[in-house]
């Protein structure tokens, strides 16, 4: 072989002199000739004291295909350098001086050997499994795949142009607007975070953004499109960077001179360091369209004053600027200005936040009502994931006891919950996540009525976290908006999360879902004790100044589930009734209930609301008892404000009932106990509302004289509490509802 090779750093030593364990392991592996495709060349030790380095140089045989895309030779000379700190991947260098410029390299100065990027994982995660066998085979595989063009796949992101450093700069989200607006100047704040490194934060607006003056100034430059992976070396000076941009058909020094020449230089500006943000438009190939953009950033080791002198823009004397006239770019001493690369990162955008959360950006407009413990945590989780543009509504303020479970920190004590939550949400990302806040009680909004109405009318979804029955009923029936309604709340003890979600066409409304949820509490054994009351803790002296005893981690558990549940509910068209119950060990049991179609009937100025599952249940009981009549009692509730009667479930005939082909007399054995149990199981939400009975085939649903008598008895019973009587006759061809009486005592039917 006639190739020339770089000479590795350090002096030649024997294998037995090696002190770094991994270097010693690799040398012994090669000396033992355990790999027929790798041979030891020499061993060197660095002459520096700290960190001490040891290098193992060897040759490998490369398996090459008949067709190659890169100039990889059948035999390549490799140097693997280890440090005594063992805190990073050993550096792997290709020592051939004309080794090709291929992707997947760690770029180094032009005079250095090519540094191969063998791994994408963190060394700390792989250090304990590192072996000499694996590194040799990884080198051979890297060379073989690079030769055939298989190392960088077609579906893989384009190769970065430069490899950054530990020092990081955070760029504005819309930095690429320079593509159409030309160079722009940014203020940059530098913070020393040793031993981690330095952090630079670039801003367009400086007022109120940071507690100090910017200590650096940045300028953006845009290069014409460039093929990925062709940058030849890491620039070390302003002149080096200028040459890189020339290779990409860009221009740096002339543009920089014009920009800096227009500055009004005071002493503070002259003392700042200059940061150059170069935006490359990257191609996969010369005949391919621009696929992506990449920003690379360098900071000058000299300050602005010295950079201007090197560019022949001015001379400095006693911190005063003397402008130079008639100088040219060719006369600039750009090689004197040393630059250091910074690792660029972007401020957290909605898109990045969504990607990090495993989702996509969703800009649907959401009005969220109730910024208490659950509402604040759920809203925060969704906003962090780039989900929703939020209008936050709450008429309450933050009191000390709220912070035990609320997402907000104590600094917001005394603030309006809605306003404080907007401030908090808008600080989560670099982009605004909320539209507005409304400090108002939804049921009594006062001067905020118009704003609240407009917000809900323009929303795509309205989410109720208030756990208020009256508010949920108002949202379902009293808000003129096409937005879907979702209600998320905890049961009284906080053991369960309930999420009720309307369908996309609102055919199954929130009020009907609420009633079907109560029915599930009657029939599902998993929901036994679901409405058991919690212990209260008093936080002030008024009668209502008490709050539930509920661990904050339990609220956080439910909030995490609710965030996922709400996204899932709004992503599908159908309605949903979902309950998640946390057990003693905080494992969670999920119950998913399929909502039933609403059935409504108008009766004498009242509207009776039930559903198909209820109708099917009674029809089934009737059929089972034919040819006799049967019956029982109705469970439900009244909404006297809206003249609504919700019929939710029915208790079949007690055992002492008399069922005949022409009559039915409902018994009472055990009935009071069953009704009381239903009231207890639903926390008083359901109660006795009336009676039902069936008619046999061929009779129809016209009430008999006995039926009218029974209806009068129901009226006497319910009117004591101010409620209208309800009676239902189930026939072969349908249902007939009765509510209230005529002056002559006859029941009024639908």
Derived from helix and strand composition plus strand pairing, the structural class reads alpha+beta
Strand order of the largest sheet: 19-18-17-20-21-22-25-26
The CATH homologous superfamily of the largest domain corresponds to NAD(P)-binding Rossmann-like Domain
Major beta sheet summary: 8 strands, mixed
Radius of gyration: 38 Å
CATH architectural grouping of the largest domain: 3-Layer(aba) Sandwich
What is the tally of helical segments? 18
Estimate the helix proportion, in percent.
Answer: 25-40%
Number of DSSP-assigned strands: 36
Apparent shape? elongated
User: Regions with pLDDT < 50 over 5+ consecutive residues?
Assistant: 154-164, 206-211, 538-546
Distance separating the two termini: 102 Å
Q: Tell me the strand percentage band.
A: 25-35%
CATH overall fold name of the largest domain = Rossmann fold
What number is the mean pLDDT?
Answer: 87
Please indicate the count of domains.
Answer: 4
Using the coordinates above, name the CATH class of the largest domain: Alpha Beta
What labels would you give this structure?
18 helices, 8-stranded mixed β-sheet, alpha+beta, Rossmann fold
Overview of this protein structure:
With 750 residues, the chain is α+β, with helices and mostly antiparallel strands. It folds into four domains: 11-148; 168-347, no CATH class; 357-593, 3-Layer(aba) Sandwich (Rossmann fold), CATH 3.40.50.720; 598-749, Cytidine Deaminase, domain 2, CATH 3.40.140. Helices cover 25% and strands 30% of the residues. It has 18 helices and 36 strands. The strands form seven sheets. Strands 19-18-17-20-21-22-25-26 form an eight-stranded mixed sheet, with helices on both faces. The protein has an eight-stranded mixed sheet with strand order 27-28-30-29-33-34-35-36, with helices on both faces. A seven-stranded antiparallel sheet has the order 1-2-3-4-5-7-6. The termini are far apart.
